[in-house]
Amino acid sequence: MDQLSLPPSPPRLQDMGKNLYDYIILGAGCSGLSLLVRLIQSGEFHQKKILLIDKQPKNLNDRTWCFWEKDPGYFEDIIHHRFNKLWVKHPAGNINLNIASYTYKMIRGIDFYNHCFNIINKARNVTVMYGEVSGIDTERGIVSSGEEQYEAKSIFSSVLLQPPQLYKGQHYLLQHFHGWWIETTEDFFNPAEADLMNFKTSQQYGCAFVYVLPVSSRRALVEYTLFTETQLKTSEYEDGLSIFIHDELKLINYAITETEHGVIPMTNIRFPVQQGRVFFIGTAGGQTKPSTGYTFRFIQKQSEALVAALIKNGSPQVAKVARRFMFYDSVLLRVLQERKLGGADLFYKMFLKNKASKVLRFLDNETSFSEELLIMNSTKKTVFIPAAIKELI
What we know:
By secondary structure, this protein is an alpha/beta fold. It has ten helices and 18 strands. The protein has three domains: about 150 residues, FAD/NAD(P)-binding domain; about 90 residues; about 70 residues. The strands form three sheets. Strands 1, 2, 8, 9, 10, 11, 17 and 18 form an eight-stranded mixed beta sheet that branches. Strands 6-5-13-14-15-12-16 form a seven-stranded mixed beta sheet, sandwiched between helices. Strand 14 and strand 15 form a beta hairpin. Helix 2 packs parallel to helix 3, helix 2 packs parallel to helix 5 and helix 6 packs across helix 10. The longest helix is centred in the last third of the chain and has 18 residues. The chain starts with 12 loop residues before the first helix and ends with a helix.
């Protein structure tokens, strides 16, 4: 979607009776597929023509989503593993998180794709097309791909049409991660518990931690994650993983069976909600938590709200995130970017001084103002108050 100019205007597609849809979804990733399967399974859109466009089929296990939920979720049937016990580990000590009514859940990318396409392929009103998008006319709702053009009343895009602009006072970091699925020849892991954040790794590049997510006594995902301005070289991620596994896990004999890599923006840039007939979803629609990079649950909330709005009034207009959460995220991003307080210390103390369930609600944008004040008061005031003042002026 790099080139957005269109060839000379053709006759309007509805006049030609060709390639006209009610909805077009651009991108068969988490946000596009989450929205599409909810549209199908609602039972309210079987008379609507829907087109899904992506570059290529989703047939690889290219990522893993982990998130916490209180109740069975929309994708409960494909949960690969569940954890009821989580740890935050730091050189200053380890915290056994009491996550109370929450469960920490894992979904494998390939299971998600297969599940969604099993539903999509049975829907007669849905067309799936693979190819590059070469242009979008946002006002007329026309998408160009190859020699064809497709028109819709509403287009849902998981890709921004222009690169985001960073203005003075805004912050842009990356959550980037490199993970190894490892297997041991003997029982080693406890699959009932996981390291949510293990900061016992080098902080030389900035805030860094490791997820340790065992799915059996002999198999685990170990993921080296950083909140910094730039990515590392592949060899640097691999060195970080090797050192952690040897020094922290005390594990020598293991085999690497799969790898995964990802990059998620952490920014307080105001992503557009709508541009003409195009509505933005997923990360492109601001559904990544700016200060942590968490995305999966926010995508599910947005998808549910979009479908509900379409059913109620035919328009995909949904409520925006409360401004106070955007402010908190901006302050946390400034602290991380200025490095006046190490990210490892920031998150460790946040969990140390507050109930884990309250912190998880805070990270989900679901706390009350009084709860948020208590969480913010538990942080290092000599760092956070100046950062907050800078965000206000």
